[in-house]
């Protein structure tokens, strides 16, 4: 009886199970849309063999919630940063609070942070200031970086280039840019996170042809849920909220364009994520 809710929410065609355990490196589980049924969401992820979830902390409030979640649920970890949208609120208080969060054992990366010149909710100058301050915090803690970039590829590369020798590792999460930007990032020795954007035959078309340029050991996978529900799912989903249990579908799509098996792609991206975020390799 207790599992009936878990079993009935996803239509049968969306009850995937990955051949290899997966790490969803970008799950916004502190989003209010998950409040009501978080326990079921996590149970469905486990049933799909998505064994590890990195919950994205986009500001102090959500990073603290992510840490709490990680303390309560095995297999969950947190990131702590200030999203470029919120960069206008950056000050020394915020910096100190982040610094304290980075000391928590549950926090495995600094971020999400970076540049978003697509919407400019904060000005580019405010974004660069908050971003560089967080690069400095990453050096202080030694943690890897979880980076967001939209329509700011060139500036991002310039800034990272000047910091590259001092920071440890960094992943460009939800990569959606072009081939030239991709190669710029790979030249900087960065990792690339791919989402269900690639499942969108209109917006994600260009990604399908450049995916093979990403060396398998530099690649990680993520849902960025509740956002970015894959457009080509084989069944309709009530409420259209994306969740970690659907990650195997994204892995299947990437594997197809990379010309490897789903299980192979799953296994290698999981190994990379465990190394990158320094997770206990119990999965
Ligand atoms: Zn993002």
TrEMBL record:
GO terms for molecular function: exonuclease activity; metal ion binding. A divalent metal cation 2 binds at residues 148, 173. CDD domains: TatD_DNAse. Keywords: Cytoplasm, Exonuclease, Hydrolase, Magnesium, Metal-binding, Nuclease. The keyword Magnesium applies. GO terms for cellular component: cytosol. A divalent metal cation 1 binds at residues 112, 224. This is TatD family hydrolase. It comes from Halomonas qinghailakensis. The lineage of its organism: Bacteria, Pseudomonadati, Pseudomonadota, Gammaproteobacteria, Oceanospirillales.
């Amino acid at each position: 009886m207790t599992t009936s809710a878990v079993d009935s929410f996803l239509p049968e065609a969306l009850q995937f199970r990955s051949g290899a355990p997966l790490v969803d490196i970008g799950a916004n589980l502190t989003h209010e849309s998950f409040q009501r049924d978080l326990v079921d969401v996590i149970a469905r992820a486990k049933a799909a063999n998505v064994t590890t979830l990195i919950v994205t902390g986009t500001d102090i409030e959500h990073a603290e919630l992510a840490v709490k979640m990680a303390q309560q649920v095995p297999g969950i970890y947190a990131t702590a940063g200030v999203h470029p949208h919120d960069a206008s609120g950056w000050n020394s208080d915020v910096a100190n609070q982040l610094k304290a969060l980075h000391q928590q054992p549950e926090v495995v990366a600094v971020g999400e942070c970076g540049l978003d010149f697509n919407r400019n909710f904060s000005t580019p100058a405010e974004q660069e200031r908050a971003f560089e301050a967080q690069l400095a915090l990453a050096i202080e803690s030694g943690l890897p970086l979880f980076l967001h970039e939209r329509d700011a590829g060139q500036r991002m590369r310039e800034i990272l280039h000047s910091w590259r020798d001092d920071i440890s590792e960094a992943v460009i999460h939800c990569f959606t840019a072009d081939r030239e930007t991709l190669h710029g990032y790979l030249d900087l020795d960065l990792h690339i996170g791919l989402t269900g954007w690639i499942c969108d035959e209109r917006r994600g078309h260009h990604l399908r042809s450049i995916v093979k340029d990403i060396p398998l050991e530099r690649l990680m996978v993520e849902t960025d849920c509740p956002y970015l529900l894959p457009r080509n799912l084989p069944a309709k989903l009530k409420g259209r909220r994306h969740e970690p249990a659907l990650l195997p579908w994204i892995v299947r799509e990437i594997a197809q364009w990379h010309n490897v098996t789903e299980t192979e792609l799953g296994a290698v991206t999981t190994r990379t994520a465990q190394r990158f975020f320094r997770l206990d390799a119990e999965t």
